[in-house]
Amino acid sequence: MIYNIGSINVDYVYRVPHLVKPGETLASHELSTVLGGKGANQSVAAARAGCPVSHVGCIGQSDQWALEQLNGWGVDTKPVRSVDGPSGHAIIQVDDAGENSIVLFGGANHQLSADQLNEALTDAEQSDWVLLQNECNALDEVFAQAKAKSLSLAFNPAPMSESVLQLPLEQVNCFIVNEVEARGVVANEHGSAQELVSALAQQFPKSIVALTLGAGGVELIHAGHVTHCSAPSVDAVDTTGAGDTFVGYLLAGLVAGLEPVVAAHKACFAAALSVTKPGATPSIPTAKDVEQFMTSQA
Ligand code: RIB
């Protein structure tokens, strides 16, 4: 079981010919409004992978539709609190090549409390995982409660910030980082992917670490070994949520008892499929879609 302590955002997705430049005013060709947030996306991905997921977060009173969607996709939202003030949201530009840029507004995602966490984790067992990103407040409290209850901790420090370095990162059992996040975590601003792999392996010898490289696949570091998992080649429509799809599928695989490298391989296929469709949560594939895709590429 996964307890995902994470954001729930309303994503305003603008299709644009190119990502807007400083000082430029740019017309978009389309606007869609979908459920997103790294937390919610990862919960949906893990649930679609077949794993029981309990989502712990906060949302504005007027956005109950988001909870109905999460429930409909098999995510337990009982621990989500409806709070005063606006929900978190994201302004997302997606260009013709499927690349994106994202501006976040934290809103309700910054209203998590220690008592909400404590209540949500009351029934957690030692075989359960806590999953965490960096779009909510109270990360230090999540680390402390996971440790106190001897729960495994998976951390995707996205988006990366200086405050991440103040956390007891040696406690993390599974890290999922892209190159930007890895550079921040190992304090090597210009490191190549290979330098980042070496530094991550040295700094976190007891953790499973996945360094995601987009279309370049994933470097999986586990028990002193580094394994490259390739990403299948696809036509990208929208890369939003691909990293979150990888995280949810990877952790669902670990909870199901898969070897980390097997779980990472499957998660690469799930992430690749997600970029072939627009939107964050709407693009996350089901386990059946992923199995069929893997078979078709074998
Ligand atoms: O990782 C993609 C997500 O980042 C979007 O859904 C957006 O809400 C931001 O949190």
Kindly summarize this structure in a few lines.
The chain is of the alpha/beta class. The chain has helices at 38-48, 64-72, 114-120, 139-148, 179-185, 193-203, 242-255, 260-274, 287-297; strands at 2-5, 9-15, 30-36, 53-56, 58-60, 75-76, 81-83, 88-94, 100-105, 129-132, 152-155, 174-178, 208-212, 218-222, 225-229.
How would you sum up this structure, described in words?
The protein has 298 residues and is of the alpha/beta class. The protein contains 9 helices and 15 strands. Helix 7 (242-255) runs antiparallel to helix 8. The longest helix has 15 residues, at 260-274.
Structural class: alpha/beta
First-residue to last-residue Cα separation? 30 Å
The CATH architecture category equals: 3-Layer(aba) Sandwich
**Percent in helix:** 25-40%
- Please provide the count of β strands: 15
Order of helices and strands: EEEHEEHEEEEHEHEEHHEEEHHH
Q: For the CA atoms, what is the radius of gyration?
A: 18 Å
